[in-house]
Design goal:
Layout lengths: L3 H4 L6 E2 L2 E2 L5 H18 L2 H15 L5 E3 L1 H7 L3 E6 L9 H15 L3 E6 L3 H13 L2 E7 H6 L1 H9 L3 E5 L6 H14 L4 E3 L10 H24 L5 E5 L4 H7 L8 E9 L10 H4 L1 E5 L2 E5 L24 H8 L4 E6 H15 L5 H17 L3 E6 L7 H8 L4
The structure holds pyridoxal-5'-phosphate.
């Protein structure tokens, strides 16, 4: 896939037939301004230097790659390694793009950052970026997720953000995006909508990918330093797809297998899962074209996962393109398997993973057995402190 990153997306923001910018006319100019500003700063050495310095001194990058020896031995087969994004400041990969988005807002002279959040990790990361850059911050969050992820709600408020509860529909991530878009429509002169994944209208899928690429670039070098070779497989959980594309984008030219892990929730029935790439078909949501879980009227279908950051009916357009190109395979893990991995990672490695990341660990455990030998590198996208109340109430402390 030579020159892939330079040529994808095209100028209109398409990855093959996916992506683009399907937005109301009044947003065309603001989005064109964001694209132009991003093109300027991403080619500016002072911007790149500032971001590098933030990554090192504020975020604590590089995060380590860790050999999960006890889990590997317990499973038998391939050796499993974690890229420790749980150790990135604020506890997940989300800060990687939020600090970039904050710098972009500063460059554009915007006063306020607006976004949605599911698990609360993007909200916390954006509130952190707003505090760092001295900006206002408004986070839209479904009421169901507010109840489920209450530590992150407190963190956002402590960091100075306004949390707007979203009370319509399923009261989860999709409705939070609807609500944040509406707020942005009313205030686009003053503010910037900082989307929380590689989704939304152009340029966000490309911009968020570029900011997340640091994960893959670091991990590739660290893995080679540790083992003298490339991993045989890399994998990551996929909600919108930002932690996955961050890792995968550094391995596209290598002969390394890649797996995106989707949530199968409570089962294959519509409404019981959020396995977009597996069960979705082409459609438009939130201003971009992608695989989409749809109801009989072609509207985004209700979705579910125990992991609030994974229950979104669409997926980033680049994932859709790479699936069709057969470069990435998409697989599923249900709630029970994710919970099992959550407890095993906690007990055996001393790492409490985010429920989202536990989906990646669960698939790595399956794959390691199948592979029998070789190595797997997964993105441990975040830590699970936010999930503790929900897990203990619903699943206890494991066996
Ligand atoms: C820890 C963690 N991992 C993964 C995700 C899923 O998002 P994405 O697919 O964009 O990486 C989230 C979303 O909130 C998250 O908090």
């Amino acid at each position: 896939m030579k020159n892939y990153l330079k040529s994808m997306p095209n100028e209109e923001g398409f990855f093959g037939k996916y992506g683009g910018a399907f937005i109301p006319p009044q947003l065309e100019k603001p989005f064109a301004e964001i694209t132009e500003a991003y093109n300027i700063i991403s080619n500016s050495s002072s911007f790149i230097d500032e971001l590098r310095s933030i990554r090192k001194h504020f975020q604590g990058r590089p995060t380590p790659v860790y050999y999960a020896e006890r889990i590997s031995k317990m499973v038998g087969g391939a050796q499993i390694y974690f890229k420790r994004e749980d150790l990135n400041h604020t506890g997940a990969h989300k800060l990687n793009h939020c600090m970039g988005e904050g710098l972009l807002a500063k460059f554009m002279g915007k006063k306020k950052l607006i976004a949605e959040t599911g698990a609360g990790q993007h909200g916390v990361a954006l509130a952190t970026a707003a505090a760092f850059f001295g900006l206002e911050c408004e986070i839209h969050m479904g009421e169901v997720d507010i109840a489920k992820e209450s530590p992150n709600v407190s963190r956002m408020k402590l960091l100075g953000a306004t949390v707007v509860p979203v009370t319509h529909g399923l009261k989860t991530l999709k409705e939070a995006v609807d609500s944040a878009f509406e707020a942005y429509l009313k205030d686009y002169e003053n503010s910037i909508y900082c989307i929380g994944s590689v989704v939304g209208p152009h340029p966000f899928p490309a911009l968020v990918r570029d900011f997340q690429r640091v994960v893959g670039v670091e991990a590739r070098e660290q893995f080679i330093d540790m083992t003298g070779e490339l991993p045989d497989a890399v994998l990551a959980c996929v909600g919108g797809g930002s932690n996955a594309i961050g890792l995968f984008s550094a391995f596209l030219d290598d002969s390394v297998k890649m797996y995106g892990v989707e949530p199968l929730g409570r089962g294959t029935e519509p409404g019981e899962h959020s396995a977009t790439m597996t069960y979705g078909k082409e459609g438009i949501i939130h201003g971009f074209k992608c695989y989409l879980l749809q109801d009989e009227n072609g509207e985004p279908a209700p979705v579910y996962s125990c992991a609030s950051g994974l229950d979104y009916p669409g997926t980033g357009p680049e994932h859709c393109y790479l699936k069709d190109e057969k470069r990435i395979e998409y697989v599923v893990i249900n709630d029970k398997e994710a919970m099992d991995a959550f407890f095993k990672t906690s007990r055996n490695e001393g790492i409490i993973p985010a429920l989202e990341s536990a989906h990646a660990v669960a698939y790595a455990m399956k794959l390691a057995k199948e592979m029998k030998s070789g190595s797997i590198l997964l993105n441990l996208s975040g830590r699970g402190d936010k999930d503790l109340d929900y897990v203990i109430e619903n699943w206890g402390y494991g066996e």
